[in-house]
Amino acid sequence: MATWLYRLGRFAFRRRGLVALLWIVVLAAVGGATLSTSSTPSTSISIPGTEAQQAAELMEERFPGSKTDGATARVVLQAPDGEQITAPKYQATIGDVAAELAQGKQVQQVIDPFQGQTVSPDQTIAYIQVNYDASPLDLTDETRAALEDAAESAREAGLVAEIGGDALFTMPETGITEVIGVIVAAVVLLITFGSLVAAGLPLITALIGVGISVGIITVLTGVLELDSTTPILATMIGLAVGIDYALFIVSRYRAELAEGHEPLDAVGRATGTAGSAVVFAGLTVIIALACLFVVNIPILTKMGLAAAGAVVFAVLVALTLIPALIGFAGKRLLPRKQRNGDAQDAEQKPRAGTRWARFVLRHRLPVLVVSIAALGVIAIPATDLQLGLPDDGAKSTDSTQRRAYDLIAQGFGPGTNGPLIVLVDAQNSDDPQAAADATARALQGLDNVAIAMPATFNPAGDTAMLTVIPASAPSSAETETLVHDIRAEAGDIADATGANVLVTGQTAMGIDVSQKLDDALMPYLLLVVGLAFVLLMVVFRSILVPLKAALGFLLSVIGALGAVVAVFQWGWLADLFGVEQTGPVMSLMPIILVGLVFGLAMDYEVFLVTRMREAYVHGESAHEAIVTGFKHGARVVTAAALIMISVFAGFIGSDESMIKMIGFGLAIAVLFDAFVVRMTIVPAVLALLGKAAWWFPRPLDKFLPNVDVEGERLRHKLDDTEPAKKPEAAAHGS
After folding, report:
1. What is the pLDDT of residue 689?
2. 668-677 tens-digit pLDDT
3. What string of H, E and C letters represents the secondary structure of 192-253?
4. Separation in Å, CA 552 to CA 479, 555, 601, 604, 684
5. For 592-614, how does the pLDDT look when each residue is reduced to its tens digit (9 = 90+)?
6. Cα–Cα distance between 193 and 197 in angstroms, integer?
7. Considering Cα of 269, then 308, then 632, then 538, what sign does the dihedral take?
């Protein structure tokens, strides 16, 4: 592979104008298609194989006209202090507001609180239920404006009015904090390279790769029914790996120049060696993301594949556009001192990476124990991990959705924010009404049931729908227990009446999602780690190095999950990170964290340890190879980690709780993995193992392909032909 990539790098260098033009054409074409597309993200979540999904599909079939994915809104109204919402003047106002809402074009149904009995027991709070025949993202600005105007009419009459539900949902937008993350990455690159040209090149290429991948995702959003989080996740991953992959190739190119190679030969060598590492690092990320399909949640599969596509473009850009742009920059990628030949003295001083490697080698056992113990302590909160899906209760207290949520909980009890829908499929029952009555009695007898509303039958009279209001909040453990209790009663009801009882609704859907993800986590982990283990064996020609890499990754993930629980569930440092409401960790978070962190962790493993293996293969001792690997790789890996942390941390400022949590989790995971695991535990373990780290069974060595990621065969080939190559390299240098 190194030889093929060497040729590719030289080709891109020579034909730099053509290569750059092709990428610009692709970017322009995708940009044009993006501007002309009118597709909108999907807001529906399909969870195949779950009872909640089965019940939702049955409800759409048996209750014609009902749209389980239609937008909903609650206009929550509160009387002034000392007054009641049932006062005649307020009743008249509420009637006018309901009539005003009913005139909306996309409105399917408006339920007046005095007709729908949605007035609080103390008669101070009421809410108007509004159901739409379109999904939240399909609602027009006119419809949303009408909803807000109706609430304003109530306020003008002296009522407190807030709007809850998903009708006000809008796509999350990029904020200033994400931009700050990119600016910090630029500063890190400038400090690392000491050259404005060298610092700008990775940023430009990463933005091109992200622009193309996100543009393609946007065009395909409607066709593939992608959700609004998908392009944000692709941006997050694409920026981070795009900058890092470019950083590694540019850094290796500068090292080759420093060894006296002309630009053409230097870019070929850099693409052949660092480019090989980029390919395998990219493959580990792609494997981790693509394998999300094992969870069998379509939205998660699509998110993973879209983010994997962003990584593919990052790798392609790094292998082709980077060498092409290097061709334009030439030796201007070097700091001014090196271009003038004044950097010799600086090179002879031990770098910080070299000094750190020697320190770890001298104190390998204490360093290993302290590092593992520290991550173990940070991981303790993960033992209390609780999963759930975010709702309006997780929004900022400044938002009308959160204020509406709090008013509902105050007036009607916390469970009203997450009602359960119990569907009684009585097609096989002799007496559907008796089956519905038996179900209602069973529900009323369960703990934690505040209200079980009377059954509503479909036109055919063979299916009943009951709304159950829990006494606890939607995200609480008590509500989850209630869902399981209802399902446990379903068997007895079926035996007695022949009716099939199913539970659905947003709360039940969230519980089923959490359970499905929990069940899938271990198979997913085994599949990803297994595939990557084989890949790393091919790269490192070792058994113990991939094993150590996988165990180190587990330490990083568990530590990161502990930090997420401490901040987002326990509330530690919540104000610092802008967490306004603590609660269960988003259900998708652990598996997304596992997938992304595994891929990114293997990036650092490949980039750092391939340098060590390269030195070992070239004749250095096991301990000398560790120092050499850190001498050449520590500064670059440190910069790469700081860049990733900056990019991910930029998303902590998002108003979307899911994006905030993912940004924090990835940033803290990269911090742990790069600086504690890869830069500390890895050299300590390798030092303890010595030569045994590079042991590889002979049968496996013959069976697995040798991809020459360290460029040993390439080096021998180039050394043999060096005299013949130098004139050519000089002719094409800048």
Report:
1. 92
2. 999 999 999 9
3. HHCCHHHHHHHHHHHHHHHHHHHHHHHHHHHHHCCCCHHHHHHHHHHHHHHHHHHHHHHHHH
4. 37, 5, 9, 11, 12
5. 888 878 877 777 888 888 888 88
6. 9
7. negative
